[in-house]
Design goal:
With 190 residues, the chain is an all-alpha fold.
């Protein structure tokens, strides 16, 4: 698949799961398509089209290391996202990155994610958690923040406070993950 073919397929109208799987397979087979795909995420974000972000998320689920060459663009672009359809997959990728960095301690990500990148991710995740976003975005953000609290001392007390404040009016999914995070925070002494 060429960059032009990728662009054409991403902009051919609504895509379904088999289309996503097919395009993901092409991108995985041709990693040079990751950067053009990510550029499409920003174009689609302005058009409230989720095709590129949905596919980008699925590519990262399968081979997260493909983000490393474009990590700076990814991190710098997080706070520019406007559409919930684009934000949710980016929040999921933040969760994948923090899990790779903190839980799995994968050397590739421990080397690639600088302190500045982690700090920017923390700021954006807090924004997603406290602003008006769908539950999936908030759940991914709170999970990322739990991990990021290993690096930044201020995160975990603030996360606890925000969760306690928003838990009563949160959706079932928010409450479920929020209670799990609060229990983990309690075990950590917060």
């Amino acid at each position: 698949m060429t960059v032009q073919e990728l662009h054409r397929q991403l902009n051919a109208g609504r895509i379904n799961k088999p289309d996503v799987d097919r395009i993901v397979a092409h991108v995985l087979a041709s990693p040079e398509l990751v950067d053009p795909l990510f550029k499409e995420v920003f174009i689609h974000d302005k058009e409230d089209n989720f095709a590129a972000s949905w596919i980008f998320d699925h590519v990262m689920r399968k081979k997260l290391e493909l983000i490393v060459p474009i990590l700076n663009d990814f991190i710098e672009g997080l706070d520019q996202m406007q559409s919930e359809s684009s934000i949710r997959p980016m929040a999921h990728i933040c969760q994948l990155l923090t899990q790779a960095y903190y839980r799995a301690k994968r050397p590739l990500f421990r080397n690639a994610l600088s302190l500045a990148y982690l700090e920017k991710m923390a700021t954006v995740c807090f924004d997603w958690l406290i602003e008006e976003h769908k539950v999936a975005t908030k759940v991914f953000a709170m999970t990322s923040l739990l991990y990021l609290g290993e690096t930044f001392d201020w995160i975990r007390p603030e996360l606890k406070s925000v969760l306690e404040q928003h838990l009563p009016q949160g959706s079932a999914g928010f409450q479920n993950r929020g209670i799990k995070i609060l229990n983990k925070l309690k075990k950590l002494g917060y």
